[in-house]
TrEMBL record:
It comes from the Bacteria. Residues 32-196 form the Knr4/Smi1-like domain. This is Knr4/Smi1-like domain-containing protein. It comes from Paenibacillus elgii. It holds the Pfam family SMI1_KNR4. InterPro entries: Knr4/Smi1-like_dom, Knr4/Smi1-like_sf.
Length: 209
């Protein structure tokens, strides 16, 4: 997966006037970032962004046409969890390692909700804490409480993960065809999303949207 092949597919979508996903009005990107601007973000948040993601920022654009409601520009919004209630800490801790290597959900909370136990509120606070997504930045929103995350610290560095705790779906990696087939990098994930547009896969059959 390369920047060149991504640009070719974007050009193909434009040339053939292929129908875009409902959440996308047009193929448009924000201005690119230069190396100094990217380095400043990395220094500020004490991280090293994946090379592929940096290439996208510097050669294609800083946010815009992309999965969900579009790619989020690199900046303050990248490290905020918009689902956190006003007054609570909503900034992701980019200095800690991302905690997961495989899909995660919180079984104690599920049991407590089914049984109506008194510790539900405490378990809910743990489950929805921004601490659950330390070591990542936000790259897109899907709506309905779903976030697209790019891991910037830990063993999953450079991989894209989904956070669907908003509807109790847990946190899980974007994979090629199953959990054991490998986790996707940013460029792999973005190109897979483009592929489904180019192939005009029906929306209800798409894995990436």
């Amino acid at each position: 997966m390369t920047i060149k092949s991504i640009l070719q597919k974007i050009d193909e979508i434009r040339a053939k006037k292929i129908t875009l996903p409902p959440s996308q009005n047009a193929i448009a990107f924000n201005p690119t970032l230069n190396a100094d601007e990217i380095a400043l973000f990395e220094k500020t948040w004490k991280i090293e962004l994946p090379d592929g993601f940096k290439s996208f920022l510097s050669e294609i654009g800083n946010g815009g046409f992309g999965p969900g409601h579009g790619l989020i520009p690199l900046g303050t919004e990248s490290i905020l969890d918009p689902r956190i209630p006003v007054g609570d800490r909503d900034t992701m801790d980019t200095e800690k390692d991302f905690a997961y290597g495989s899909a995660w959900n919180y079984e104690p909370l599920r049991r407590a909700m089914e049984e109506g136990t008194a510790d539900q509120d405490q378990l809910m606070e743990y489950y929805f804490s921004v601490d659950r997504i330390s070591g990542a930045i936000r790259v897109c929103d899907w709506g309905g409480g779903g976030l697209g995350l790019l891991v910037v610290k830990g063993r999953e560095h450079g991989k894209v993960w989904c956070d669907y705790r908003g509807d109790f779906g847990g946190i899980f990696p974007e994979t090629f065809s199953g959990e054991d087939s490998g986790h996707m990098s940013f460029l792999q994930w973005y190109e897979a999303w483009l592929d489904e547009i180019v192939l005009e896969v029906p929306m209800e059959e798409r894995r990436f949207w």
